[in-house]
Amino acid sequence: MIQSMTGFGKATKQLPSKKITVEIRSLNSKGLDLSVRMPGVYKEMELGLRKELGEQLKRGKIEMSLFVESTSEEGTAKINKGVVAMYMQQLRDLSDGADIDFLNMAVKMPDAFKTEREELNEQEWEQIYVVIEEAIQNIINFRTDEGVSLENEFSLRIENIRLLMNQAIALAPERIALVKEKLKSAIDDLKVTIDENRFEQELIYYLEKLDVTEEHVRLNNHLNYFLETIAGNDDNGRKLGFISQEIGREINTLGSKSNHAEMQKLVVQMKDELEKIKEQVLNVL
Q1: pLDDT of 227-279, one tens digit each?
Q2: Helix (H) or strand (E) holding 266
Q3: Confidence category of residue 107, pLDDT binned at 50, 70, 90
């Protein structure tokens, strides 16, 4: 079953002093274009996380964001008492006894607050990693659901092409009769005597060039192969793109050989259906 490259996954968990939120977004891309945003304290885990995301999600423009919201009453920012006291003393020396709120001014000075650097907690990271895995699974589920919709769309478009193809092939006898009639009429207008056997030989040679039996067989095989591929378990986005190109070649050849107004109209409709397929194939993993 195919998967879409477009998806979204989210997971949250409340730890004793933090709320963890993980969001993963994915759009279509030719390869793996991975972006990870996370607090600096967890940066040393990013390499392994990127490897995991690549193995699980495989392809697409992927953005993963890890948000950590502190729910503890204790903050990491502390007043730097020594620095604030020094600022206040210097301000007093400059004030000449003026009535000034020295504390309010001092806490606005550089280095008045110090932030204690948080160290990576291995046990905490294990809990966060569980949230990340849940978000990954959620985006995979999203992609799978989107894949079902894409598969239904592809099946509809492929059968539309097959129906139009069969309608076009059904016009072949009428087209051959019209070609014979036109050629015969053109020769009659010349008012010359011709060798009937030679005329028949040339006519057969000409009609062989207009024969679309091979295109019909190949196009039908490509349509079947497309349906077999979307039913497979592999990542088939690129393969579906190649099959679509082959379908397009056969449709174009059918159109160039048609030499019949109604058949050419059907070929145009087939091309329209194929373009809708190509647009959606770009979203397939």
Answers
A1: 999 988 777 888 999 999 999 999 998 888 777 788 889 999 999 999 999 99
A2: helix 261-281
A3: low
Specify the residue for token string 């490509």: 222
Among 113, 64, 58, residue whose Cα is nearest residue 87: 113
The closest alpha carbon to 41, from 128, 130, 135, belongs to 128
Sign of CA dihedral 100, 104, 107, 110: negative
What is the DSSP secondary structure assignment for residue 41, as one 8-state letter? G
* pLDDT tens-digit series, residues 44-91: 889 999 999 999 999 999 999 999 887 765 555 567 777 777 877 777
Amino acid at 93: D
Distance CA 90, CA 88 (A): 5
CB atoms near residue 73 (< 10 Å)? 6
Cα–Cα distance measured from residue 181 to residue 210, given in angstroms and rounded to the nearest whole number? 15
> Residue 188: which pLDDT band, with cuts at 50, 70 and 90?
low
Could you tell me the strand order of the sheet in which 7-14 lies? 7-14, 18-27, 60-70, 32-37
- Report the predicted TM-score, pTM, of the whole model to 2 decimal places: 0.72
* Cα–Cα distance measured from residue 232 to residue 36, given in angstroms and rounded to the nearest whole number: 31
